[in-house]
# Entry
Amino acid sequence: MLELGAGHGTFTDHLVAAGAQVTLTEMSEPSVRLLQSRFRRNPNVTVLYDKDGTAACQAGPVDAVVCISVLHHIPDYLGTVAQLIDQIVPGGAFLSAQDPLWYPRRSRLSMSLDRNAYFLWRLGQGQLRRGLATRLRRWRGVYDEANEADMVEYHVVRDGVDEDALHDLLDPAFQEVEVKRYWSTQSGLLQAAGERCFPATTFGLVAENRL
# Structure
């Protein structure tokens, strides 16, 4: 399996526990060092430093590609996914989850609830100052290479991910492609309320049986 933008390896743990051999890519150098240390004794995990966003497209044939909250960090995510499709073997799969829905189709209420929930979660974690500082640097166009948060923020696609365009790109290459839209936030309390009352902010996509 190929996992793009593995971060600190949270989802990787599930893939490894399921018995997969996983190649990880990550564009944040501090995260790469953490991943290399974390999985250094596991022969089923390979970590690639993807500084320019091309390493994933050179990983070779794979049974599945996994993207967890990463496509909105790739400037040309549709072009990247098109290249990744060619690397998936017949019968293989593509999974994407936890990317924000395409902003132009979202309501003002959806966007406002999403952003306010983010800041409330930061406040609850005692990280409000850090979150505000990161956003201030973003608004000013300042990029701090030594700051791990900025290694991610610098690559964010500002309009989210066009889930319909992603579906249309994958549909001709897979037997079945399903998109599910849902509410998601970091706060457990807000998550419980949002699932019942709030509009969708996020989507998951599963493409199965590569043709």
Summary: The chain has a mean pLDDT of 86. The chain is about 40% helix and 25% strand. The radius of gyration is 17 Å.
